[in-house]
Amino acid sequence: MARPNDEVEALLREYADLIAITGKGAFKQRAYERAARAIGGHPADVATLDSKSLREIPGVGSSIADKVEEYLRTGRVAAVEETRASIPPGVRALLDVPTLGPKKAMTLYRELGVSSVDELAAALREDRLAELKGFGPKARENIEHGLAVLRQSGGRIGLDTALGVAEETVARLGEAAGCVRCAYAGSVRRMKETIGDIDVLAAADDPEPVMAAFCALPLVAEVVLRGRKKTTVRTVDGLQMDLRVLAEDSWGAGMIYFTGSKAHNIRIREIAVRKKLKLSEYGLFDAKTGRKRAARTEEEVYRRLGLPWIPPTLREDRGEVAAAQRDALPRLVTVDDLRGDLHSHTDLTDGIAPLTEMVAAAARRGYHYYAVTDHAPELRMQRMTLDKARAQREQLRQLAGEHGRLKLLHGTELNIDPEGNVDWPAEVLAEFELCVASIHSHFELDRDAQTRRLIRACENPHVNIIGHPTTRKFGRRNGIDADLDAVFAACARTGTALEINSHPNRLDLNDEHILRAREHGVRFSIDSDAHAPTHLGHVRFGVAQAQRGWLGPDDVINTWPLTRLRRFLRKTGAR
DNA sequence: GCCGTTTTCGGCCCGACTGTTTTCAGTCG
């Protein structure tokens, strides 16, 4: 299913959590977390590494390497199994509730026997937390709010996870006997930021072997229902997945129908009705005679409706059908349009890979330019200093020219303080080729304060990009409360770009914000915010959100040639 | 548990915020 590195990362993270909950040493816990991150972000497949190379991964010593090897060999690790036996899995799930950490989770389990999020909600309702030490009224209120945030994302999973499952399933079913075509549809194909369930389509004359292959997939935990045309399963992640099998000659109509969105489908069916046609998942038919007019491909069905093909990321009934009728669909930005990445980290701060590895990974992507933007000193835990930043700049200079056309830019990710000020005085900021500025704390300030703060950051002549502008994280916190339209206007006025942060847990700005910001004439930067070489590929998620926000290449500064980008970074020609 | 221009022991990312335990533990980034 997942790549072995991801499985190992998940296992080590789980073990780290269990160590924290059982109170077996903060340093041991951190060692496991560090190793988990290092392996998750390691470019080589751990399953192919020999013992020596495994131990060369920073943070992986002999104890952890042994466990990794045990896992790769047997699929389990005795030490982890033992700890699991003493702590029910639901206790670990309590850590997903914001404001609940390992200590409080353990107290809840030990004192009240709470061993799941549901039991926590029940205990809260029955006011059983009041008797516990360390759970005063405010703490209980915070937990209640935390549960609400968790519930909002509840049942939905990240686009990255869903895409992984969908792609894996399509690859496997494509090999099933008699399967002519296979593809995923639904919200995964529309690249929505979170996914409720996965829809997979297959074309086959005989559905039976495909259905059987589907039910036999290793990631299937339970077959919920099974019929001739449709089968529903639940995956090991608790995700619902539907497979529909149809005849090859209605493939296009089926793809349109199951890609949705529902609102988009209603819109195009209205057009069909006006043309005395009837559109279903089986095809586009003459309403009177029932004769099939189109069905084989999406293009053919749209064409018969008098429309050009509409990209799935636009199919949300946000005016795309009307635009298609006017032949005014935007030319959407694609991953191939990106000439560089303007927000990334190295192990000088909280990345896991050294500068040389990050740069090499950027070069492999064929970029024309690449900005290294490690954290600035105000984010204290990263221990950045001006000396370190300058040394990094020198190191970057020495790497210049080592990767063909790739131009390296030295930047930094500044911290926006509650007043909207950033690290370092202007003369120091001027040394950097670009500055990203982001909020990392004080998420609870009121709307006016947050708005002022962001606008002030935009007005700083050295701030080029506002990083992850709302700071939301799925399942962790909602974005800050700010008058975003005022912020968008300030960005347009000052020539400050807004980031579309591509990390699948962030996707910030989101599609609706992008649409609104675009109306203000804002420019965008689609960045990975990579903390490891493998993260550079996250831009596919950011690009998808940009498409959902109707952006073309011209709206996105990191599709521009370097000379044009540099002009923008000087912040003189705000439009 | 990892690691080493502090090198096989003794450190380890640091500081702010918050609520409540009135002197600090827990959580977060």
Low-confidence stretches: none
Mean pLDDT score: 91
Helix-residue proportion: 40-55%
Strand order of the largest sheet: 11-12-13-14-15-16-17
Strand proportion, as a percent range, falls in: 5-15%
Report the biggest beta sheet as strand number plus sense, adding barrel if it closes.
Answer: 7 strands, parallel
Number of strands: 17
SS-based class: alpha/beta
What is the third-level CATH name, the topology of the largest domain?
A: TIM Barrel
CATH class designation of the largest domain: Alpha Beta
Structure report:
With 575 residues, the chain is of the alpha/beta class. It folds into four domains: 150 residues, 5' to 3' exonuclease, C-terminal subdomain (DNA polymerase, domain 1); 90 residues, Beta Polymerase, domain 2; 57 residues, DNA polymerase, thumb domain (Beta Polymerase, domain 3, 2-Layer Sandwich), CATH 3.30.210.10; 235 residues, TIM Barrel. Helix content is 42%, strand content 14%. It has 24 helices and 17 strands. A seven-stranded parallel sheet has the order 11-12-13-14-15-16-17. Strands 2-4-7-6-5 form a five-stranded mixed sheet, with helices on both faces. A three-stranded antiparallel sheet has the order 8-9-10. Helix 21 crosses helix 22 and helix 22 crosses helix 23. The longest helix has 18 residues. The radius of gyration is 26 Å and the shape is globular. The two termini are 48 Å apart. The mean pLDDT is 91. The protein binds one DNA strand of 29 nucleotides through helix 2, helix 4, helix 7 and helix 9. Its cofactor is Mg(2+). It holds the Pfam family PHP.
